[in-house]
Amino acid sequence: MPLRIAYDASLVPKGGFEVFSSTATPIKSEKKEPAGHLFHKAALIAAGVYIDSDDEEDMPPTPKGITAEFDPARWEGMGEKKRQKKKGSKKDAELDKYSLLGLDKERYLATEKQIKDAYREACLLFHPDKCSAGVEDEEEKLKIEERFKSIQEAYDTLSEPQKRRAYDSTDDFNEFLPMSADDDEHFFKQFGPAFKRQSRWSEKTPVPQLGDADAKDADVEKFYDFWIRFKSWREFPDEEEHDVESAECREHKRWMDRENKALREKNRKKEIKKFLAFVETAYKIDPRIIAIKAAEKAVKEAKKEAKHEAKNKERWEKEAAEQAEKDKIVAEEEAKKSAKDDDKKTREREKKLVRKERARLRSTMTELKERVGAAKAATLPSEFAIDEIAGAMNDLDPLKELVDRLAAVNISCEDAASTLRDVAEKNDINLGNEAPEKEEKAVSAASPAASAKSNGKSNKGGKKEEVKEEDFSNWNEDEEKMLQKALRKFPKGTGRRWETIAQYLRTKSAEEVVKYVKAKGEVFKPAQKQPAEAKTGAAADSQEGEDNMVVDDDDGKEDIWTPAQEQALIKAVKAFPKGSVSSEKDRWARIAEAIPSKNASQAVKHMPIMLARIRANKAAK
Fold it and tell me: How far apart are CA 345 and CA 585, in angstroms?
């Protein structure tokens, strides 16, 4: 059963309550129990009503096993009388600590030496032994003793830095902080004293002052840099603070300290916020700061403008350089094009003159042969050899010189033959008339052999000629057509004519082409131009195709095609068949776009050559 604990009714707090406990509650061990005054103390502590000395060092530790619950609500309202009394005592003029020591003018500016000297002087003046001599009134003596005790307390407070700082924080002080100014003059009159008053709380010394309108920019910046980072040693006690001296126990005292500390921290933050607003306002309306910012803005704008101008100048220079480079390239291209055009015109003129001189060479040789007679003409080179010489000589001056020498009236047949032999040797041309003569004999012999073969007759010579006729059996109809076209395309006088024709055919060598032409003779004479109304059927269609394709003559220049280009040509022809485009010219232009490094003219010329080669390969297989 719970045991009633004896207690004094006078100790029961207002409202009243009873304390109950058991012998097992205060301890954890079952073998030991508190007894005597320790039992009563443990019970009171567990109930939260134990009252002990204010000095925490003298407080006995909580007995082991006691788990007293801390209830701050129990202490609400305690110590209010002492706090109110303490609050009023600090502001009493009679108890002002600086006035008691005679330092009411120096106050927070008083040094340690001044405080010590003032205390000694006050002790000599107001010591009870001295002042009480001859005083019989006990109340007066009590006042003298109380005054001396106050002097001692004042010295104890002001001689210890921490206590003096706390006391100075509550000393009378002008808290006014201006937040505006009418003009520049009023700014320095209003804000200067305010900064000076606040400098008393600074942890760092010396403290810079506001100065005047003539202060240097560096000093102004340094001033505001200090005050924005201002650190104050001032404490901010609150009127609602608890009086720690009235604490009932150690826990009660600690609770009061925490509450007081929270209140002071709250006041400190509030004052810091207010002070920073004051500093920021001064910074914004300070005419010196406004002038500094205006100057900095002007410098910044000037730098920005200079940078912009430099950037524009660099861009303009770059554009001018690029334009100059483009103009230079255009001028060079135009110069190259002009030079190319001039060179082309010069070559065309030279080619025209060369062709004219070649024709003059042939006509000169014909006249020379007619002049010297048939007997002596046999010693001169044949017409075939003359064509070879004319085709080998591409330079105008040597050719003209040769023709002029042969065209001389007094030139003999021997001199002409000697001159032509020299030219032939230089150009590696065989001027012997045996090959042409043998070819002519072979052609003339081929006719009776062919007739004999057709009539079913055979002899020894006929068999020989049959073998000769079989040498041309590998020529098909397409190759003959290509040969006829090549002979028309590359007439007499063309440089390296037979090699060019062989390259055009692609399937025969130059030697085979010469033999075949000599053997066929009249078959390959240039066809007479038919009148427009006579063109019908396939001839008209062929002519129309050639007219639509618009083939430029490259004067016999070699046009080499790679297998990849031929494959591209075949694919392009299949992709753009006849009739797929409005005109044949556009059709071949699109075909040429699909072939790398070739134009429409080259594609048109190479198409029949490629088809002839394909047909020849099929026929050979």
Answer: 26
**Cα-Cα end-to-end distance for the chain:** 132
What is this structure's pTM? 0.38
What is the reported pLDDT for 57?
43
CATH number of the domain at 583, please. Answer: 1.10.10.60
Instruction: Estimate the crossing angle of helix 584-593 against helix 600-620, to 10 degrees.
Output: 80
Top mean pLDDT of 125-134, 140-149, 181-190, 485-494 is at 140-149
Cis peptide before 206 (omega within 30 of 0): yes
Res 409 pLDDT > 60: yes
Give the Cα separation of 224 and 145 in Å (integer). 51
Q: Is the pLDDT of residue 195 over 50?
A: yes
Contact 72, 249 (CB under 8 A): no
B/e letters for 321-341, b = 16+ CB within 10 Å, e = fewer, are eeeeeeeeeeeeeeeeeeeee
Phi, psi of 422 (to 5 degrees): -60, -45
- Coil, helix or strand for 12? coil
Please give the DSSP secondary-structure letter assigned to residue 243: -
Provide the strand spans (E) within 206-292: none
Q: At 45, which helix (H) or strand (E)? A: helix 37-47
- 148 and 87 in a single domain? The answer is yes
Q: 201 in helix, strand or coil?
A: helix
Distances (CA, A) of 502 to 235, 389, 472, 556, 612: 116, 19, 15, 11, 13
Count of other CB atoms within 10 angstroms of residue 449: 22
The domain boundary, picked from 169, 204, 225, lies at: 169
pLDDT tens by residue, 109-152: 889 999 999 999 989 888 888 888 877 788 888 888 998 999 99
3-state secondary structure (DSSP) of residue 241: coil
Residue-number span of the structural domain to which 125 is assigned: 80-169
**% of the chain at pLDDT higher than 70:** 73
